Amino acid sequence: MFAAEFEPAVSHGRRVAERAPVSIDGDIGKARRTLCKVVDISIHGARLLTYCPLIPHSMIWLTLPGAGSLAAEVRWAEEFAAGCRFMTALDPEVFERLVALNRAGR
Questions:
Q1: Of 5, 29, 49, 82, which cross-links 77 as Cys (Cβ 3.0–4.6 Å)?
Q2: What's the rounded Cα separation, in Å, for the pair 31 and 42?
Q3: pTM to 2 decimals?
Q4: DSSP E strand boundaries for the chain
């Protein structure tokens, strides 16, 4: 038996990083590509609207303007929407450029 002290961890929900609402056209895949729309994004992942269903826990390549092709795991998928986690976090400057691109309406 031993004694210990503890302090409750502060939780701000499930999100690890700020998410920004966007509307960015992207591509899924390298050889066989399909279009998607990124509807929100963070440095760690994105929520997509797709034209074909994705399979949870599968790996995809997501191509975004100015960011190139990013390896991502599909964390969840429901019909034609999916959430993915980037295998390597976006550089914060790339994230800011994507958000700014969306604000400019391009």
A1: 82
A2: 26
A3: 0.76
A4: 20-28, 34-41, 45-50, 59-64, 68-78, 81-86
